[in-house]
Amino acid sequence: MEQNLLIYNTLSRRKELFRPLHEGRVGMYVCGPTVYGDAHLGHARPAITFDLLFRYLQHLGYKVRYVRNITDVGHLEHDADEGEDKIAKKARLEQLEPMEVAQYYTNRFHEAMAALNCLPPSIEPHATGHIIEQQQLVQQILDNGYAYESNGSVYFDVEKYDKAYKYGILSGRNLDEVKDASRELDGVGEKRRQADFALWKKAQPEHIMRWPSPWSDGFPGWHCECTAMGRKYLGAHFDIHGGGMDLIFPHHECEIAQAVASQGDQMVHYWMHNNMITIEGKKMGKSYNNFITLPQFFSGQHEKLSQPYSPMTIRFFILQAHYRSTVDFGNDALQAAEKGLARLMEGWKTLKRFAEGQKVKGQPQVEMKQVDELRQNCYDALNDDLNSPIVISHLFDACRIINTLADKKASITAEVAQAFAEVFHTFAFDILGLTEDKGATSKAREEAFGAVVNMLLEQRMQAKAEKNWALSDKIRDDLAALGFEVKDTKDGYAWTLNK
Ligand code: ZN
Q1: Residue 496 Cα, ligand 1 centroid: separation in angstroms?
Q2: Which end of the chain has the smaller Cβ count within 10 Å, N or C?
Q3: d(CA 340, CA 317)
Q4: By C-alpha distance, which of 275, 255, 235, 322 is closest to 26?
């Protein structure tokens, strides 16, 4: 824990030395998914970014309580105060109970996260399980005079709040800009001013997700859940609140306003945001209709994908960029990541052999000093606002040293090899969260597999030449039973796998 970790705080707009509010313990809240569809690459980035932080803080010895919510109500069609609830809409279209939709996509989200080797959060609260806490928050804000009731709905009074505390400190927007950005139609006739946002919405008769409240049968505004659940599980003041940059405004700006209006001061010490993933230069997201879901990446089933990409390739691809820089999706970049990851894993396998006692004679000797340097370089990179691409570049440097051993151009003692393997393992596997992935070697496997099929078909040619029809038919039929279609051609054979 002696490491001096610098993290970029969006609120202060600079890197700050990380100091937890409570000795040895860290509270971290990250905005989770809205569960009405499969997670896409844009969801993988915050998941992996904050998984890296979670892993690193634990590595440093902190006891971390990591809360990531599931949004299963209150996220409306137009990301504003109007429109149909996204989950309710999906349920209506597919004739399901809204909770069936939410559960189905929550399960799918968990599968994708496990595949990406993201550790599960300590607590995963659902918005629908915390309606009372959200109502309490709304009541506190009403009691303090920063909200008003209108026609059964409750709105946050942004102008009044701005006079007392200043609205827009996270996004750097002033109130006039906020007014301009708000839609004319949002909460038409109910809100006093355009910039005001809903804390509680009265449900329309057709709205199926609704709860009783002092104001109306209705549902909470989207921003309420994170303030209410963050406070419930991490306390009135906690260390880190994270999410994608697209959440800075309005979501996190509104969270700050809600916290301050209800308790008089801010809840969050460090605000951290990952940058976005673009696809051909455009933001990737459901509303842009250009998103590729994680299951599609894993299976390769999307017109923009030239091949499947393993979860570890995706993880490595994302870690190869610093979390605050943009990443543009492309098959070339993903294929380069696949190769890079394979190179790293090859290096690891070789290193393991030396750590397990394989002797190598060569000049010069790999010294403990180099291992210490590698360790320090990796720590320095992580301590500089989680600079994972620099950590990866140091691991590639390590692979170059390992290759000199494999080429017998250097030697290493068992003691140094073991220390070397331990450092490599700590950073590549424990902290970056990489795994020895089948996907990274899938090309080699595929080639070997094809060679075996060809070997069998060569034998069948031989059998045919010897007029051993029983054997030749057996090979063809056995392959057919496994899903191979074998065709005889002029110069021999051709085969395809129909599975
Ligand atoms: Zn949130």
Answers
A1: 48
A2: C
A3: 9
A4: 235
Question: CA–CA separation, 154 vs 217, rounded Å?
Answer: 12
32 Cα: distance to centroid of ligand 1 (angstroms): 7
Residue with tokens 């380069």: 336
Per-residue pLDDT tens over the stretch 335-390: 999 999 999 999 999 999 999 998 888 888 999 999 999 999 999 999 999 999 99
Domain that holds residue 226: 6-274
Can you tell me the distance from the alpha carbon of 156 to that of 15, in angstroms, rounded to the nearest whole number?
32
* Count of CB atoms situated within 10 Å of the CB of 120: 13
187 lies in the same domain as 270: yes
Tell me the per-residue pLDDT of 387-437, one tens digit each, with 9 for 90 and over.
999 999 999 999 999 999 999 999 999 999 999 999 999 999 999 999 986
The number of domains in the chain is: 3
Residue 395 CA to ligand 1 center (angstroms) comes to: 35
Coil, strand, or helix at residue 286?
Answer: helix
257 and 374 belong to one structural domain: no
Residue 251 Cα to ligand 1 middle (Å)? 7
